[in-house]
Design goal:
Elements lengths: L6 H4 L5 H9 L2 E5 L3 H13 L3 E6 L16 H6 L3 H12 L4 E6 L4 H5 L7 E4 L4 H14 L3 E7 L2 E7 L7 H4 L12 H4 L3 H21 L8 E5 L4 E5 L10 H4 L13 E3 L5 E4 L9 H8 L4 E5 L4 E5 L2 E5 L5 E4 L4 H11 L3
Parallel strand pairs: 1-2, 1-4, 2-3, 4-5
Antiparallel strand pairs: 5-6, 6-7, 7-8, 9-10, 10-14, 11-12, 12-13, 13-14
Helix pairs in contact: 2-10, 3-10
Length: 341
């Protein structure tokens, strides 16, 4: 470990040489390497966290460049998977940090298939079903995690210490309905809101990894960067006794089958991931589609093509992102037509 590199950080009360060594030995799973995830990934990589697992299902788009760190115009032009682009950039920023790209949807099989439990999970997602999945997985295995979300000019974040602090279910027993709140698509997103939320997330991560759980801020951080409002709401001082995840009686998100089709926040795009496609041969599919679709391109990570006004990005496991469509039924019909039922 290059101690000179972290000399200013080591001087901070609460870090020190021992804390810096703990950071170097830590593994953090970041679920979602979009706006939130790229900010926290860069901060933790520069701080000397030893291993970052970067999970993301999406590819880089031009609209990402306004607020998502680690990506370039070349990444957007090539449609590079976000996890891959982020890992490449981190390798340039800090060769001591091992950034592992995981081009995948965060599902229960994905979490169960990790090589080991990480020391911490950071939320960089854009939807509550995935957050509840992270929450229940973390509670079941005793893994601390940090929730984060932002839309428009507002944001919120909270550290969850299993069996010690309230979890996401303690605050909201059930995921909010998608139609009840604003999204990046309807309200937009301001980059400083992302920066404020991820500053809180990253600080909790560094404190937890370097100093331990007692250093973590309790409560829910909220902000509105346009109105200049920043607050930590204390909330409950302990888990809700009625919470099934905190009590260990059940983990609802782990008992629910992941949907095969889902819209992507802030995008005219739908993800389709039907069962039974694990053995899809992208090379064979590409040959089959030659002459029937436009702009077909095969990279080491995916197969891309355009047809019926929609751009397909198909991954080795059969999962596909369809850009240029919002209706999930139409997306599934197009998938079945061009890739197979």
């Amino acid at each position: 470990m290059d101690t000179g590199r972290y000399s200013r950080q080591v001087r901070v009360d609460g870090i020190g040489p021992e804390g810096q060594l703990r950071l170097a030995r830590s593994t953090v799973l970041i679920v979602g390497t979009g706006a939130l995830g790229t900010h926290t990934a860069e901060t933790l990589a520069r701080a000397g966290v030893g291993t970052l697992w970067l999970c993301d299902r999406d590819v880089v788009e031009w609209s990402n460049l306004q607020r998502q760190h680690l990506f370039s115009e070349a990444d957007a032009a090539a449609g590079t998977p976000k996890a891959v682009a982020a890992a490449r950039r981190i390798a340039e920023l800090n060769g001591e940090c091992r950034a592992v790209p995981m081009v995948a949807d965060c599902t229960r099989p994905f979490l169960d298939g990790l090589p080991r439990h990480p020391d911490l999970i950071l939320d960089g997602t854009d939807n509550f079903p995935t957050r509840y999945l992270i929450n229940d997985h973390a509670l079941r295995h005793g893994i601390p995690w940090v929730y984060g979300g932002a839309v428009g000019t507002e944001g919120a974040a909270m550290a969850v210490l299993p069996r010690t602090t309230p979890c996401l279910r303690c605050l909201w027993p059930d995921p909010p309905q998608a139609a009840t709140g604003a999204t990046c698509e309807t309200a937009g997103i301001l980059e400083p809101a992302i920066a404020a939320v991820t500053a809180f997330q990253s600080a909790q991560a560094l404190k937890l990894l370097a100093s331990g759980p007692d250093a973590v801020t309790r409560g829910v951080f909220t902000c509105d960067v346009w109105r200049g409002s920043y607050h930590v709401w204390p909330g409950r001082d302990a888990p809700d006794p009625a919470c099934p995840a905190c009590s260990g009686t059940s983990y609802p998100a782990l008992e629910t089958e992941a949907p095969a089709t889902a819209t992507l926040c802030g995008r005219d795009a739908v993800q389709v991931h039907p069962a039974g496609t694990a053995g899809l041969d992208l090379a064979a599919l590409g040959r089959q589609l030659e002459g029937s679709v436009a702009r077909i391109e095969r990279t080491e990570h995916l197969l891309r093509f355009e047809v019926d006004g929609v751009r397909f990005s198909v991954f080795p496991g059969g999962r596909a992102l369809l850009s240029g469509v919002r209706d999930v039924l139409r997306a599934r019909a197009l998938y079945d037509r061009w890739i197979g039922a």
